[in-house]
Amino acid sequence: MGNKIQYPKPKTRKHLNIRRLLAVLALFIGAGLLVIFTNLPSHAVIESSSISPSPHPLPPTLAQWQDNTNSGDYFSQVEKTQVGYLVWSQFPVKIYVDRPQTASNQQAQAWFSSVLETVQEWSAYLPLVVVEQPDMADITILRKAPPLQFSRDGNFPRARSAQATYELYTSNNVLSHRFTILLSPTQTGVFLKAASRHELGHALGIWGHSDLPTDALYFSQVRNPPPISPRDVNTLKRVYEQPTTLGWSVNKFLYKFSKYWTDKLKIVH
Ligand SMILES: [Zn+2]
Which tens digits make up the pLDDT trace of 107-126? Predict the structure, then answer.
């Protein structure tokens, strides 16, 4: 019997394709784990005796708000979080909007202007100020695509164009929160403004969705995005009347809050 010579197998196109497929799969799985990880509720331990939720005084803009149309609200859809409702109590709320690096970047300039317009819209109802530095901000709005998110019914990551997340911290013993909003660089025009208006609504305290497409906080994108509606403002006002542990001093704040819950809004169709 002659010796069998084993030749190294040539790398065929098929092998290369399988390798590529595996690499892509690994990337998706990696991204998926990351998203799942950030969606897990954080373990936060609060000594309940040390914090008792109380309401803050209404800011004048909301106190004066009257809805002559009696449109109602969707307050029942707003989530009460572990720390209570996500109201701001130090005004004006400081907002940082991603600034274009160069004046010649027209897309970034247009993005910046559109987002600023929506900050202006909400400032009719809550005192807001745009700050120059992100580290000073309560709400940071970045021109950045949100990470891929796996849908509940399948394994395919969904592209989203906007997302709002919040985190909690203590500052001088006061329980505080800060928001980060990601808005896709590729969105433009009325859809960018709709996404920005919507996510700002979350960051200002409406941590839930309307079921009417005529509200800015409707859960999905619509063909003709509405402005902030009386129902949006009625809901915001009710949120600010609620007790919360945010903005009050805590004697003992144990352990770790981090990113909490990612907005489930899917804007891309
Ligand atoms: Zn939303």
Answer: 999 999 999 999 999 999 99
Whole-number Å distance, alpha carbon 26 to ligand 1 midpoint, is 29
Over residues 72-88, the pLDDT tens digits come to 999 999 999 989 999 99
8 A C-beta contact, residue 263 and residue 189: no
Give residue 122 CA to ligand 1 midpoint distance, Å: 16
For residue 216, report the distance from its CA to the centre of ligand 1, in Å: 9
Predicted structure pTM score: 0.76
Q: How far is CA 175 from CA 168, 171, 203, 204, in A?
A: 7, 7, 16, 16
CA of 88 to the centre of ligand 1 (A): 18
> How far, in Å, from the CA of 73 to the mean position of ligand 1?
16
